[in-house]
Amino acid sequence: MKTEEALFANDTFYLTFTSKNFEAMDRLWATEHPTLCIHPGWPALTERKDVVESWKRILENPGQPGMDFYNASALVVGDIVLVTCYEELSDSIMVATNGFVEERGVIKLFHHHAGPCAQPPRPTSAESDRAV
User: Fold this and answer.
1) Total number of domains constituting the chain
2) What is the pLDDT of residue 126?
3) Residue 20: left (phi > 0), alpha (psi -120 to 50), or beta?
4) At residue 62, what are phi and psi to the nearest 5 degrees?
């Protein structure tokens, strides 16, 4: 898997979140690879059904604010790619890690972890985000 593919999948993840498209979110998550999702303040979710249900609850919440993300960078670790970025919500900035793996030729999300960032960096240009 190339870093560009993982960065595109990361963009897709945030577009899916912003558009509150649960069906697309469900399709984005891995079905064969183990999963791990840690939402800020939640316990770790390790079963795919629990991960997908958590996203359903989040995306169906009418009070859930939108989110922007910036400074995405990719790190290849064996057969997976880890993408780190910053999530900008209405009142806070989180640092996030999203893990991607290839399943049957399709890039799938298997890991998401976000937590508060006390001193986030400023956004940089898209071109510099893509090189790691």
Assistant:
1) 1
2) 55
3) left
4) -65, -20
Tell me the β-bridge partners of 112.
37, 98
Q: What is the pTM of this model?
A: 0.89
Task: Tell me the residue ranges of DSSP E strands in 23-117.
Answer: 36-38, 68-77, 80-88, 93-103, 106-116
What is the per-residue pLDDT for 82?
A: 97
Query: Over 50: is that where the pLDDT of 3 sits?
Result: yes
3-state secondary structure of 4: helix
Q: Which domain holds residue 63?
A: 3-118
Q: Which residues contact 68 (CB under 8 A, 6 or more apart)?
A: 14, 87, 88
- Indicate if the pLDDT at residue 78 is higher than 80: yes
3 state DSSP class of 67: coil
Residue 103 lies in a domain: yes
